[in-house]
Amino acid sequence: MAASMRLLVKRVIRLSHGNFNATAAGVSGRSGCCWGTTSCCCFSDDRSTHFGFETVPEAEKAKRVYKVFENVAQKYDIMNDAMSLGIHRLWKDSLLHVMNPQPGAQLLDVAGGTGDIAFRFLEYVRSQQERQRRRSARSMQTPSWQDISNNYSTEDEERPQESRAVVCDINKEMLKVGKQKGDSMGISAGLSWVVGDAEELPFDDDQFDIYTIAFGIRNVTHIDQALQEALRILKPGGRFLCLEFSKVTNPVLARLYDAYSFQMIPVLGEVIAGDWKSYQYLVESIHKFPDQEAFKHMIEDAGFYCVQYYNFTGGVVAIHSGFKL
Amino acid sequence: MWSCVGKRFQRLNQRHYALICKAPCVQQLCSSSSEFTDSCYNGLYPGHIPTTPIQKALLAVGSGVAALQDPYRHDMVAVLGETTGHLALINLRDRMRNDPEGYTILIERPRIRLSTLDLSKMASLPDGSFGREYLRFLEDNHVTPDTRADVKFVDDEELAYVMQRYREVHDLLHTLLGMPTNMLGEVAVKWFEAAQTGLPMCALGAVLGPLRLNARRLQSLFTSLGPWALQNGRRARCVLSVFYERRWEQSLEDLREELNIKPPPVIVAASNKRST
Question: Which coarse location class describes where this protein primarily resides (chain A) (predicted)?
Fold first, then answer.
């Protein structure tokens, strides 16, 4: 009942543009309370947020973001390569180096979409395992009889926990593309694809060692809720990692970067993906995202400790890291 | 108390008002915002995306390359036409203004879409009439008038309409010239359009289209179809200035004579497969 009332009033407000003077008193009289403030209970869902440079009601943003990624899913990887001239691969590699996962780690990659981070994680962990095996083999070149018999007995008992990567994304199209990529690359062991909302993850508490979100958190409507969810599902000692576009520190580079992003990227979007508006949104959302320090404070507020950030490419992207203790 | 409320209301309204001022489509804004089409977000007409000169240049180059790589990317051909056709569109618009029928079109802004055509009525027209032949053309070639992309990058609302009209008249031109939608027919129509409109995109298509034809068709193009298309393009009355929607009953021969278009010298058969 309340919802339909809100809808009705919203429609009335929109229709009253032409003669707002006349209805100003009328509408505010009808609502009774102080209509303008956003904290009013009647209009709680009229809180607005930004969608790029546009201002939209919060309820709208999620829907519009979904639509954007639904449209771009097929060409997402090609566009990433074209827009960043392939540098996004280096950024993602850097994220893995900062993460430095050990065999047995459980990863949750939120907004993981096409699976780039998860694939890299599994590769990294695999090569770490190889390295460990080689190292233990090298150190065991001249074993004594005692060592050999010990090895035989412990071989079956001690099976280290396999590393697992869960890719979670709210958008089914992106997950579909990611799954296809995984299948074509032949990576399926230790990988799962889950549909879920970063603000309300479908996982129990204390499940994962590492939580990553690469180029996804700026699309979330309530970033603080996403951070709280991250804290919840991490094990104590778990690590939060976020790779995201940030403020360029050098002013000259900043001008060039702005010019490039606003002039070039929507054009690339139109030519390669046939979708100008989605890439316009992308560039605008980058500009609306808080800078390194502000985001660091948001992560600290959520309850993470030892929060640090690392700039890459002059601040074009930043990796923020925090621990749950 | 009322003043502070009024001020907040005003601020909120100004945001909406600014949006409405920019785009004269209040209807869409008033409809359910759950399907908020951002065609009314910013611009002079629904679907308009304002672009800077640098962006236009980049678009022109990019869409040209994309269209050459994959000629079936109609959206790239459309973008190429929009970004390079400014002068030609001004020329066309002036020609339309100077013609009484063209002027009517600029005022009334008719659109050719399946929803605006009365197909049953057109089917009942006698053979040889323009409407009947157009319908036959649509059926034989399995096309519909609804596949034309909307204009996005033209920064003048009237010129955008001229561009849109040009796109929608393209199929009618096929009927008038008697050309099917296979490669040869399309190239012939492009030559006609290049001579008529002077749009750089048509000229580019006219030059590069023949590269995809086999030797026999190339010969047919250069010896008979091509010169015929060019001559007619130069001599014919401005095809955009004709109010086709009011001329469905007119006989095709009659219309051709009025527009100064000679019938094709060679009958090009409509084939179902896309052949080169």
Answer: mitochondrion
